[in-house]
């Protein structure tokens, strides 16, 4: 089995939030384990097809939702690693705020924001 190694270029923070992943065939419930401006790991009971594009709905608060389009990088029985490809401006701002609240180095977060600003739909 081929192993891939990914270098993290973005601050990843733990997030206890529910999530729903939509594929063309199914809706998969899950829980966000960690998230960055560029991707996330969602614990699920169902594996997702690698390289497929999915829609992800994250629920960090009672009346709050973050919507992103992502690509499945890897998937196992424990969950899936997803790379964010597109998000609307309001979801971008909510995600940036969540990460900023959990990170001490705001300069790093600002540099990361500039790296992914092209993902805003």
CATH architecture label name: Beta Barrel
Oligomer: single chain
Task: Name the helix and strand elements from N-terminus to C-terminus, one letter apiece.
Answer: EEEEEEHH
- Shape label: globular
Comma- or semicolon-separated keywords:
121 residues, alpha+beta, Thrombin, subunit H, 6-stranded antiparallel barrel, 6 strands, globular
What is this entry, summarized?
The protein is α+β, with helices and mostly antiparallel strands and 121 residues long. The protein is built from two helices and six strands, in the order ββββββαα.
Q: Could you characterize the architecture of this molecule?
A:
It is a single chain. The protein has one domain (13-115): predicted glycosyltransferase like domains (Thrombin, subunit H, Beta Barrel), CATH 2.40.10. Helix content is 21%, strand content 45%. It contains 2 helices and 6 strands. The chain has a 6-stranded antiparallel β-barrel with strand order 1-2-3-6-5-4. Strand 5 and strand 6 form a beta hairpin.
Give the secondary structure arrangement, pairings included.
Elements: E1 13-22, E2 27-35, E3 39-43, E4 53-61, E5 64-76, E6 79-87, H1 89-102, H2 106-116
Antiparallel strand pairs: 1-2, 1-4, 2-3, 3-6, 4-5, 5-6
């Amino acid at each position: 089995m081929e192993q891939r190694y990914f270098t993290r270029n973005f601050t990843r923070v733990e997030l206890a939030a529910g999530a729903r992943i939509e594929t063309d065939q199914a809706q998969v419930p899950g829980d966000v384990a960690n998230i960055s401006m560029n991707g996330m790991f969602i614990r699920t009971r169902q594996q997702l097809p690698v390289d497929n594009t999915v829609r992800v709905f994250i629920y960090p608060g009672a009346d709050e939702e973050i919507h992103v389009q992502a690509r499945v990088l890897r998937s196992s029985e424990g969950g899936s690693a997803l790379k964010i490809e597109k998000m609307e401006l309001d979801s971008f701002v909510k995600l940036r705020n969540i990460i900023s609240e959990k990170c001490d180095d705001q300069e790093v977060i600002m540099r990361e924001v500039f790296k992914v600003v092209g993902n805003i739909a």
